[in-house]
Amino acid sequence: MSRSFFYKLFPPPSFLTMPTSGVDISDESIHIAEIEKVSNGCIVKKYGKRKIPKGVIESGRIKNVPELKKIFTQIRKEEGLRFVNVSLPEQHGYVVTMRIPKMKQSEIYGNLELNIEEHVPILAKDAVIDYDIVQVGKNDEEKVFIELNVSVYPKEIIEEYMEVFKGTGITPLCFEIEAYSVARAVIPKGDKGTFMILDFGKTRTGVTIASREVVHFTSTLNIGGDILTQAIARNFSISFDEAENLKKKKSFLVREDGNRDLLLALLPTISALTGEVNKHYQYWNTHKNPFGKEHQKIDSLLLCGGLSNLAGFSDYLSTNIHVDVSVANVFKNINSFENYIPEIPFEESLQYATSIGLALSSNK
């Protein structure tokens, strides 16, 4: 999976051979995964999560740096973390594909700085730009071009996240838009197909399209698992925790006693989410890329995050979008189950796609 890191803070010295943790920071929680190389692949050496108090982070923006710094200082004491790769919330970043004339690699960044404002609504002086070279080819006029996968992120937000780690004893090696990390974890290494990935969090859903091992599109939908839980709680007049339990245990699609009310509670939100996903799916499959070429059609849709465990949901998506839908295996690029059985329960592991993808980047 093509990688795109912001603020690569150090060259790769010898300590990068040590286990590196991936740290996935969302509005409500921190997920950590540490991967270590062994003789027959990799293993998950360490994993865990911490809750973040309400209001510390809102929509990916850090509102209370001292409080978050305290949490990471405690994590350092308890878990012994030292070097970490850190996710950046995708709703503030941009991923674009660009072609530039053939030039020296040392000239590419300067070219991007001059032209990036034509592609994203951020001034070049306020942005951090990173890129991967996808291919070098010739256009219809036989002129050589370089095709780039470009990531752009507001400098101000990256600096917020850097500030959090100062004085904690934890050193961030790099920052990455979470869509890249998720794709690295769930798409089989070397697979040149086209995948849509839905990453369901508690408050939002990340949509990613990756083709030929390159992330081409990301979007964030403001629909998450908590909205469904709240709908169940209202409909059945039960607590949030009881509703969360019911959501995990019952399939809203199976026709049996008690499920009709669950279907009525969930269907408006599920239908709205499916409609938004289908828009992205249809747009990709029916529109040409910026260079007038047909997109490679989406082969399958992969689910990760908490809502991917909702019984009946994958079947509902498959029926309504007409695509193969499956729950992702976040251990796919770590090791085979024949060699290694992770300690993380499979259902819980779906919450660790981002942190595992971040850790995998340092264990190639």
List the helices and strands and how they pair.
Blueprint: E1 20-25, E2 29-38, E3 41-51, E4 57-58, E5 61-62, H1 65-79, E6 83-88, E7 94-101, H2 105-115, E8 127-138, E9 144-154, H3 155-165, E10 171-177, H4 178-186, E11 194-200, E12 205-211, E13 214-221, H5 225-236, H6 240-249, H7 259-286, E14 300-305, H8 313-321, E15 324-327, H9 346-349, H10 353-360
Parallel strand pairs: 1-6, 6-10, 11-14, 14-15
Antiparallel strand pairs: 1-2, 2-3, 4-5, 7-9, 8-9, 11-12, 12-13
Helix pairs in contact: 1-3, 4-10, 5-6, 5-7, 7-8
Record keyword descriptors for this entry.
10 helices; single chain; globular; 15 strands; alpha/beta; Nucleotidyltransferase, domain 5; 364 residues
Number of helices: 10
Task: Tell how many strands the DSSP assignment holds.
Answer: 15
Query: Biggest sheet, in brief?
Result: 5 strands, mixed
CATH topology of the largest domain: Nucleotidyltransferase, domain 5
Structural class: alpha/beta
- What is the beta-strand fraction? 25-35%
Give the C-level CATH assignment of the largest domain: Alpha Beta
Q: Which CATH architecture of the largest domain?
A: 2-Layer Sandwich
- The name of the CATH superfamily of the largest domain reads ATPase, nucleotide binding domain
As laid out across the biggest beta sheet, the strand order is: 3-2-1-6-10
Series of secondary-structure elements, N-terminal to C-terminal: EEEEEHEEHEEHEHEEEHHHEHEHH
Mean pLDDT: 89
**Spans of 5+ residues with little confidence (pLDDT < 50)?**
none
Number of domains: 2
Amount of helix: 25-40%
How would you describe the shape? Answer: globular
Rounded to an integer in angstroms, the radius of gyration calculated over CA atoms is 21 Å
Q: Kindly, what is the distance between the CA atoms of the first and last residues, rounded to a whole number of angstroms?
A: 11 Å
